[in-house]
Amino acid sequence: xxxxxxxxxxxGGRARSxxxxxxxxxxxxxxxxxxxxxxxxxxNYANRVLQEQFGYAPVPTYGADExxxxxAECKPEVVIVTSIDRTHHRYIIRxxxxxxxxxxxxxxxxxxDKCQQILDTVERTGRNLRxxxxxxxxxxxxxVRQLLMD
Length: 150
Fold this sequence. Notes:
This protein is an alpha/beta fold.
């Protein structure tokens, strides 16, 4: 079975749940092929976590200005956008234009104009965009849900 190829842009606080899930729960169906961030230390940390906790091979790293190069060299099918909110639109639009589907952490973007640009790009390219909200799966939020259900 072919695994889905993921690249991730933005390796700050929101990023870890995504790359750890790919390296563990979804290892048989998914693979990380590239990291992109303006901070090399964050990418090195993510690679260290992946290696030490999951035995995952290091993922190639690219600077924030090397996004197009990352997509060209790593050939992801899906780009996960977990960068700071004000940069989401830039990476979402470009990934869609380069032929990738996109998963982005909420908020999709920071204002109506950028939102419309994203929606127009989805329509123009025919690619898929999913907006996620990882906080709902945090341990304390899951516990609150379970308490309410009980």
